[in-house]
Specification:
InterPro entries: FxsA. The protein is elongated. By secondary structure, it is mainly alpha-helical. Helix 2 (about 30-65) runs antiparallel to helix 3. The protein has a two-stranded antiparallel sheet with strand order 1-2. The protein is built from five helices and two strands, in the order H-H-H-H-H-E-E.
Length: about 160
């Protein structure tokens, strides 16, 4: 984890600054500055429009009774793209724009889902009326329609006032 933070907070800004200085020396410094500003503005507008479209898609999926897992992943990746595009730099802009393009975002999303399934295991526990249940024991509980049916009848019924 420390290595990842080292890369994120030290190496990436160093590489970005080096690339910006190289671009400024190869072209015009004003062009480089304009490029950074324009990509930030265009990227934030794209992220905003795609974010709203994804938000509407999430609402539609919720209202139809489906879990919007795919759309939620899109929303997270669009948010990350917006953050990367606001950050000045060439590598962050290229990464941010690649996350905003749907046909490039799809394989990235598939890889992240596969990575998450490999590295994370989710369990839940709950207590209902004094009985503890957990998601890992859910496969051991009888499923609806598979349990034994008992016939019974009411012997005495009282109506309470």
């Amino acid at each position: 984890m420390l290595g990842i933070l080292l890369i994120l907070f030290i190496l990436v800004p160093f590489v970005e600054l080096t690339l910006l200085l190289f671009l400024a020396s190869a072209t015009d410094p004003l062009f480089t500055l304009a490029l950074v500003v324009v990509t930030g503005v265009i990227g934030s507008m794209l992220a905003k429009s795609q974010g709203f479209a994804t938000y509407r898609k999430i609402q539609a999926e919720f209202s139809s009774g489906r879990m919007p897992t795919d759309s939620l992943f899109d929303a997270v990746l669009i948010f990350v793209a917006g953050v990367l595009l606001i950050t000045p730099g060439i590598l962050t802009d290229m990464t941010g724009f690649s996350l905003l393009i749907p046909f490039l975002r799809t394989p990235i999303k598939a890889w992240l889902i596969a990575w998450g399934k490999k590295h994370f295991h989710v369990t839940t526990n709950a207590t209902v009326d004094g009985f503890a249940t957990s998601a890992s024991s859910a496969s051991q509980t009888p499923q609806p329609g598979s349990s034994e049916i008992l016939e019974s009848y009411v012997v005495e019924s009282r109506k309470e006032d």
